[in-house]
Amino acid sequence: MYLHGLLFILTDVAPADEPNFNRWYDREHLGDRIEVPGFTSARRYERLDTGRWKHLALYETEDLRTFSSPAYKERLASQSAWSKQVLPLFVDPQRTIAQEVARCGVGFGGYISVLAFRAEPDDPGALAEHFSSLAANAIEADDNICRMRLFSADSELSRPVAEYKQSRPSPIGGEHWFIFSEASDPSSLQGIPTLMSALQSAYEPVEIGEFRLRVGVDRGDITDTPAP
């Protein structure tokens, strides 16, 4: 059983606000979050087609305890002046925290798809094993698919926060499971929903969308480097 944690944010922003939004995300916010102990990487994506949310941000952690840590809570409570100016520009944001329960493949691709579904499995381990079998077959059949992962949302940690005000009901929430599939070619992601329709105990799937990588930051990127 994997214990890695994931915070992901889906949002839109008005076209006029997008330059400032992108600059803040790329130049300040990703690095700010990766400085928090327990965070291992932060990546941003932009949607390939039209849909509810254009922007996707992924923040990965060593485990779910990071999101309850004093350091993370302190960072949330002490937003920068730039953050306080940009966060209200988010349109229809969706914030979810989830735990990784299965993975297949290695590395991350330039393109990612996100699929949500509901499940009430009698045996979560069996669900994870069936997912791993389907994912392994998909990766074996297509060299462009590099990694597929299954996450289970944490309903308590995914509760709404003041910084993100939803403008309408969301099709996903803390009761959902999520499949993140990564590839080097976006066309390889198109068959994932059909493949995963066979997943045991899964129902009411929601295709959140396909996105391309915009920028990523790893923990090592903020490590102090001695001056030459």
- In CATH, the topology is named Alpha-Beta Plaits
Structural class: alpha+beta
Shape: globular
Strand order in the sheet with the most strands: 1-3-2-8-5-7-6-4
Distance between the termini: 43 Å
- What's the total number of strands? 8
* Helix content class: 10-25%
Cα-atom Rg, whole angstroms? 17 Å
CATH architecture field: 2-Layer Sandwich
Poorly predicted ranges: none
Highest CATH level, the class: Alpha Beta
Q: Give the total of domains.
A: 1
The helix/strand order is EHEEHHEEHEEHE
List the helices and strands and how they pair.
Layout: E1 5-13, H1 18-34, E2 39-47, E3 55-61, H2 70-77, H3 81-86, E4 90-105, E5 111-119, H4 124-141, E6 145-153, E7 177-183, H5 192-196, E8 202-218
Antiparallel strand pairs: 1-3, 1-4, 2-3, 2-8, 4-6, 5-7, 5-8, 6-7
Written account of the structure:
The structure is a single chain. With 228 residues, this protein is of the alpha+beta class. It has one domain (5-218): Alpha-Beta Plaits (2-Layer Sandwich), CATH 3.30.70.100. Helices cover 24% and strands 36% of the residues. It contains five helices and eight strands, in the order E-H-E-E-H-H-E-E-H-E-E-H-E. The chain has helices spanning 18-34, 70-77, 81-86, 124-141, 192-196; strands at 5-13, 39-47, 55-61, 90-105, 111-119, 145-153, 177-183, 202-218. An eight-stranded antiparallel barrel has the order 1-3-2-8-5-7-6-4. The longest helix is centred in the middle third of the chain and has 18 residues, at 124-141. The radius of gyration is 17 Å and the shape is globular. It starts with a strand and ends in a 10-residue tail after the last strand. The model has no long low-confidence stretch (mean pLDDT 92).
